[in-house]
Amino acid sequence: MKKQELVQRIRSKRSFLCVGLDPDVSRIPERFSGDVLAFNRWIIDQTRDLCVAYKPNTAFYEALGLEGTRILKQTIAYIGNNHLIIADAKRGDIGNTSRYYARFAFDTLGADAITVAPYMGADSVQPFLEEAGKWTILLALTSNSGSSDFQHALQGDTGQPLYERVMRTAMEWGSTDNLMFVCGATRAERFGDLRRIAPDHFFLVPGIGAQGGDLAAVCTFGLNDECGLLVNSSRGILYAEDPRRAALDLQRQMDEALKNYAPKVFE
Ligand SMILES: O=c1ccn([C@@H]2O[C@H](COP(=O)(O)O)[C@@H](O)[C@H]2O)c(=O)[nH]1
Protein backbone atom coordinates (compact mmCIF):
# COMPACT_ATOMS: atom_id res chain seq x y z
CA MET A 1 0.00 0.00 0.00
CA LYS A 2 1.43 3.38 -1.07
CA LYS A 3 1.59 6.31 1.34
CA GLN A 4 -1.09 8.28 -0.48
CA GLU A 5 -3.47 5.34 -0.22
CA LEU A 6 -2.73 4.99 3.49
CA VAL A 7 -3.41 8.69 4.06
CA GLN A 8 -6.63 8.42 2.05
CA ARG A 9 -7.81 5.56 4.25
CA ILE A 10 -6.95 7.51 7.40
CA ARG A 11 -8.90 10.47 6.02
CA SER A 12 -12.00 8.47 5.16
CA LYS A 13 -12.05 6.35 8.34
CA ARG A 14 -10.96 9.27 10.54
CA SER A 15 -8.71 6.80 12.22
CA PHE A 16 -5.03 5.94 12.42
CA LEU A 17 -5.63 2.87 14.54
CA CYS A 18 -3.54 -0.27 14.08
CA VAL A 19 -5.01 -3.34 15.76
CA GLY A 20 -2.37 -5.69 17.13
CA LEU A 21 -3.13 -9.36 16.55
CA ASP A 22 -1.16 -11.02 19.37
CA PRO A 23 -3.30 -14.03 20.26
CA ASP A 24 -2.53 -15.56 23.65
CA VAL A 25 -4.38 -18.89 23.78
CA SER A 26 -4.74 -18.64 27.57
CA ARG A 27 -6.66 -15.35 27.22
CA ILE A 28 -8.91 -16.10 24.25
CA PRO A 29 -12.60 -16.28 25.29
CA GLU A 30 -13.66 -19.83 26.11
CA ARG A 31 -16.23 -20.03 23.34
CA PHE A 32 -13.38 -20.18 20.77
CA SER A 33 -12.06 -23.41 22.36
CA GLY A 34 -8.48 -22.31 21.62
CA ASP A 35 -9.18 -21.76 17.91
CA VAL A 36 -6.80 -18.85 17.26
CA LEU A 37 -7.84 -18.35 13.64
CA ALA A 38 -11.53 -18.10 14.58
CA PHE A 39 -10.64 -15.61 17.33
CA ASN A 40 -8.55 -13.50 14.92
CA ARG A 41 -11.36 -13.50 12.36
CA TRP A 42 -13.81 -12.35 15.00
CA ILE A 43 -11.49 -9.51 16.10
CA ILE A 44 -11.00 -8.48 12.47
CA ASP A 45 -14.77 -8.46 11.87
CA GLN A 46 -15.24 -6.31 14.99
CA THR A 47 -12.64 -3.73 13.99
CA ARG A 48 -12.33 -3.62 10.17
CA ASP A 49 -14.17 -0.33 9.74
CA LEU A 50 -12.39 1.36 12.67
CA CYS A 51 -8.74 0.77 11.83
CA VAL A 52 -6.36 1.24 8.91
CA ALA A 53 -3.78 -1.39 9.83
CA TYR A 54 -3.32 -4.74 11.53
CA LYS A 55 -0.11 -5.81 13.20
CA PRO A 56 0.30 -9.50 13.94
CA ASN A 57 3.39 -10.04 16.07
CA THR A 58 5.00 -13.13 14.58
CA ALA A 59 6.18 -14.39 18.00
CA PHE A 60 2.65 -15.38 18.95
CA TYR A 61 2.38 -17.53 15.82
CA GLU A 62 5.90 -18.95 15.81
CA ALA A 63 5.24 -20.23 19.35
CA LEU A 64 2.45 -22.39 17.90
CA GLY A 65 4.83 -24.21 15.55
CA LEU A 66 3.97 -25.04 11.95
CA GLU A 67 0.30 -24.58 12.68
CA GLY A 68 1.04 -21.03 13.84
CA THR A 69 2.52 -20.07 10.46
CA ARG A 70 -0.56 -21.46 8.73
CA ILE A 71 -2.82 -19.44 11.07
CA LEU A 72 -0.78 -16.29 10.45
CA LYS A 73 -0.98 -16.71 6.68
CA GLN A 74 -4.72 -17.36 6.83
CA THR A 75 -5.23 -14.38 9.15
CA ILE A 76 -3.42 -12.12 6.69
CA ALA A 77 -5.49 -13.50 3.80
CA TYR A 78 -8.68 -12.87 5.80
CA ILE A 79 -7.72 -9.21 6.37
CA GLY A 80 -7.47 -8.72 2.59
CA ASN A 81 -6.19 -5.72 0.66
CA ASN A 82 -7.87 -2.80 2.36
CA HIS A 83 -5.61 -2.52 5.41
CA LEU A 84 -1.88 -2.14 5.85
CA ILE A 85 -0.60 -5.44 7.25
CA ILE A 86 2.50 -5.20 9.41
CA ALA A 87 4.46 -8.33 10.30
CA ASP A 88 6.00 -7.34 13.63
CA ALA A 89 9.05 -9.59 13.48
CA LYS A 90 11.92 -7.20 14.33
CA ARG A 91 14.25 -8.87 11.84
CA GLY A 92 17.73 -7.91 10.60
CA ASP A 93 20.79 -10.04 9.75
CA ILE A 94 23.57 -10.10 7.20
CA GLY A 95 22.17 -9.00 3.85
CA ASN A 96 21.90 -12.47 2.36
CA THR A 97 19.79 -13.65 5.31
CA SER A 98 17.72 -10.46 5.55
CA ARG A 99 16.68 -11.07 1.94
CA TYR A 100 15.07 -14.34 3.05
CA TYR A 101 13.40 -12.71 6.04
CA ALA A 102 11.94 -10.19 3.59
CA ARG A 103 10.83 -12.96 1.26
CA PHE A 104 9.08 -14.77 4.11
CA ALA A 105 7.23 -11.67 5.34
CA PHE A 106 6.25 -10.25 1.96
CA ASP A 107 5.91 -13.28 -0.35
CA THR A 108 5.10 -16.21 1.93
CA LEU A 109 2.94 -14.35 4.45
CA GLY A 110 1.67 -11.56 2.20
CA ALA A 111 2.43 -8.70 4.62
CA ASP A 112 2.84 -5.09 3.41
CA ALA A 113 5.37 -4.07 6.04
CA ILE A 114 7.84 -5.57 8.46
CA THR A 115 9.51 -4.25 11.61
CA VAL A 116 13.30 -4.35 11.42
CA ALA A 117 16.05 -3.89 14.03
CA PRO A 118 18.77 -1.42 12.93
CA TYR A 119 21.63 -2.82 15.01
CA MET A 120 23.45 -4.61 12.17
CA GLY A 121 23.46 -1.55 9.96
CA ALA A 122 22.85 -0.62 6.32
CA ASP A 123 23.39 -3.98 4.60
CA SER A 124 21.04 -5.70 7.06
CA VAL A 125 18.20 -3.23 6.35
CA GLN A 126 18.70 -2.68 2.61
CA PRO A 127 17.11 -5.98 1.42
CA PHE A 128 13.83 -4.98 3.10
CA LEU A 129 13.92 -1.49 1.57
CA GLU A 130 14.55 -2.95 -1.90
CA GLU A 131 11.15 -4.65 -1.96
CA ALA A 132 8.99 -2.52 -4.27
CA GLY A 133 5.72 -1.34 -2.76
CA LYS A 134 6.59 -2.63 0.73
CA TRP A 135 7.42 -0.85 3.98
CA THR A 136 10.35 -1.24 6.36
CA ILE A 137 9.53 -0.09 9.88
CA LEU A 138 12.77 0.49 11.76
CA LEU A 139 13.02 0.39 15.55
CA ALA A 140 13.95 3.90 16.69
CA LEU A 141 12.75 4.55 20.26
CA THR A 142 10.96 1.51 21.62
CA SER A 143 8.27 1.44 24.31
CA ASN A 144 9.93 -0.92 26.80
CA SER A 145 11.84 0.21 29.90
CA GLY A 146 15.06 -1.29 28.49
CA SER A 147 15.00 1.22 25.64
CA SER A 148 17.01 3.55 27.91
CA ASP A 149 19.89 1.02 28.06
CA PHE A 150 21.11 1.87 24.56
CA GLN A 151 18.68 4.04 22.64
CA HIS A 152 19.08 7.15 24.79
CA ALA A 153 22.86 6.90 25.00
CA LEU A 154 24.48 10.08 23.70
CA GLN A 155 26.88 9.54 20.84
CA GLY A 156 30.40 10.76 21.48
CA ASP A 157 30.93 12.32 18.06
CA THR A 158 27.60 14.15 17.65
CA GLY A 159 26.07 14.35 21.12
CA GLN A 160 22.85 12.92 19.66
CA PRO A 161 20.96 10.10 21.35
CA LEU A 162 21.39 6.80 19.53
CA TYR A 163 17.76 6.75 18.35
CA GLU A 164 18.34 10.09 16.60
CA ARG A 165 21.43 8.73 14.88
CA VAL A 166 19.49 5.65 13.78
CA MET A 167 16.71 7.80 12.33
CA ARG A 168 18.96 10.34 10.58
CA THR A 169 21.16 7.63 9.09
CA ALA A 170 18.24 5.46 7.96
CA MET A 171 16.54 8.45 6.34
CA GLU A 172 19.44 8.40 3.86
CA TRP A 173 18.71 4.74 3.04
CA GLY A 174 14.97 4.95 2.52
CA SER A 175 12.29 7.52 1.78
CA THR A 176 8.97 8.59 3.29
CA ASP A 177 7.39 6.10 0.86
CA ASN A 178 9.11 2.96 2.11
CA LEU A 179 10.47 3.71 5.60
CA MET A 180 8.66 4.25 8.91
CA PHE A 181 9.98 4.32 12.47
CA VAL A 182 8.80 2.55 15.62
CA CYS A 183 8.38 5.15 18.36
CA GLY A 184 6.86 3.98 21.65
CA ALA A 185 3.89 5.82 23.16
CA THR A 186 5.47 5.40 26.59
CA ARG A 187 8.09 7.92 25.39
CA ALA A 188 5.52 10.59 24.59
CA GLU A 189 7.75 13.32 26.06
CA ARG A 190 10.15 12.64 23.18
CA PHE A 191 7.62 12.97 20.37
CA GLY A 192 8.37 16.65 19.74
CA ASP A 193 11.99 15.66 19.25
CA LEU A 194 11.12 12.62 17.11
CA ARG A 195 8.92 14.73 14.84
CA ARG A 196 11.65 17.37 14.52
CA ILE A 197 14.10 14.66 13.39
CA ALA A 198 11.70 13.08 10.88
CA PRO A 199 8.98 15.61 10.02
CA ASP A 200 7.47 13.63 7.12
CA HIS A 201 7.89 9.96 8.02
CA PHE A 202 5.14 7.78 9.41
CA PHE A 203 5.69 6.48 12.95
CA LEU A 204 4.32 3.16 14.15
CA VAL A 205 3.44 3.80 17.79
CA PRO A 206 2.94 0.82 20.12
CA GLY A 207 2.53 1.17 23.87
CA ILE A 208 -0.93 2.59 24.52
CA GLY A 209 -3.38 0.54 26.57
CA ALA A 210 -1.65 -2.29 28.44
CA GLN A 211 1.71 -0.45 28.56
CA GLY A 212 0.14 2.82 29.73
CA GLY A 213 1.38 5.11 26.93
CA ASP A 214 -0.14 8.55 26.49
CA LEU A 215 -2.23 8.73 23.30
CA ALA A 216 -3.16 12.41 23.75
CA ALA A 217 0.47 13.50 24.08
CA VAL A 218 1.54 11.32 21.15
CA CYS A 219 -1.11 13.01 18.99
CA THR A 220 -0.29 16.54 20.18
CA PHE A 221 3.38 16.26 19.28
CA GLY A 222 3.39 13.47 16.70
CA LEU A 223 0.70 14.31 14.14
CA ASN A 224 1.79 15.98 10.91
CA ASP A 225 -0.07 17.25 7.83
CA GLU A 226 -0.53 13.71 6.48
CA CYS A 227 -1.30 12.30 9.94
CA GLY A 228 2.07 10.54 10.13
CA LEU A 229 1.02 8.15 12.88
CA LEU A 230 -0.19 4.57 13.12
CA VAL A 231 -1.05 3.95 16.76
CA ASN A 232 -1.21 0.30 17.79
CA SER A 233 -3.19 -1.38 20.51
CA SER A 234 -3.02 -5.16 20.95
CA ARG A 235 -4.06 -6.46 24.40
CA GLY A 236 -6.15 -3.35 25.08
CA ILE A 237 -8.46 -4.39 22.23
CA LEU A 238 -8.06 -8.18 22.02
CA TYR A 239 -8.92 -8.85 25.65
CA ALA A 240 -11.32 -5.99 26.32
CA GLU A 241 -14.78 -7.03 27.47
CA ASP A 242 -16.03 -5.54 24.21
CA PRO A 243 -13.22 -5.29 21.62
CA ARG A 244 -15.33 -3.24 19.22
CA ARG A 245 -16.12 -0.71 21.94
CA ALA A 246 -12.41 -0.49 22.85
CA ALA A 247 -11.47 0.13 19.20
CA LEU A 248 -14.32 2.63 18.78
CA ASP A 249 -13.15 4.61 21.84
CA LEU A 250 -9.68 4.89 20.30
CA GLN A 251 -11.05 5.80 16.85
CA ARG A 252 -13.10 8.62 18.41
CA GLN A 253 -10.07 9.99 20.24
CA MET A 254 -8.12 9.84 16.98
CA ASP A 255 -10.85 11.65 15.06
CA GLU A 256 -10.78 14.47 17.65
CA ALA A 257 -6.99 14.64 17.56
CA LEU A 258 -6.97 14.86 13.75
CA LYS A 259 -9.47 17.73 13.85
CA ASN A 260 -7.45 19.58 16.50
CA TYR A 261 -3.86 18.94 15.48
CA ALA A 262 -3.89 17.82 11.85
CA PRO A 263 -6.84 19.51 10.07
CA LYS A 264 -4.80 19.57 6.82
CA VAL A 265 -5.32 15.78 6.58
CA PHE A 266 -8.89 16.59 5.52
CA GLU A 267 -8.02 19.26 2.91
O1 LIG B 1 8.66 -0.66 21.00
C1 LIG B 1 7.86 -1.57 20.78
C2 LIG B 1 7.87 -2.32 19.62
C3 LIG B 1 6.92 -3.27 19.44
N1 LIG B 1 5.97 -3.52 20.37
C4 LIG B 1 4.96 -4.55 20.07
O2 LIG B 1 3.67 -3.90 19.95
C5 LIG B 1 2.67 -4.69 20.58
C6 LIG B 1 2.14 -3.97 21.78
O3 LIG B 1 1.19 -4.76 22.47
P1 LIG B 1 0.21 -4.19 23.61
O4 LIG B 1 -0.55 -5.39 24.04
O5 LIG B 1 -0.66 -3.13 22.98
O6 LIG B 1 1.06 -3.63 24.69
C7 LIG B 1 3.34 -6.03 20.91
O7 LIG B 1 3.24 -6.87 19.79
C8 LIG B 1 4.79 -5.63 21.13
O8 LIG B 1 5.68 -6.70 20.92
C9 LIG B 1 5.96 -2.78 21.52
O9 LIG B 1 5.10 -2.96 22.41
N2 LIG B 1 6.91 -1.83 21.70
UniProtKB/TrEMBL annotation:
Q: Which SUPFAM superfamilies match?
A: Ribulose-phoshate binding barrel (SSF51366)
Going by the record, the broad EC class of this enzyme is lyase
The text of the family note is:
Belongs to the OMP decarboxylase family. Type 2 subfamily.
Record keywords = Decarboxylase, Lyase, Pyrimidine biosynthesis
Keyword Ligase carried by entry = no
Reaction(s) catalysed by this chain's protein: orotidine 5'-phosphate + H(+) = UMP + CO2
| InterPro entries, per database record | Aldolase_TIM, OMPdecase_type-2, OMPdeCOase_dom, RibuloseP-bd_barrel
Name of this chain's protein: Orotidine-5'-phosphate decarboxylase
The organism's taxonomy opens as:
Bacteria, Pseudomonadati, Bacteroidota, Saprospiria, Saprospirales
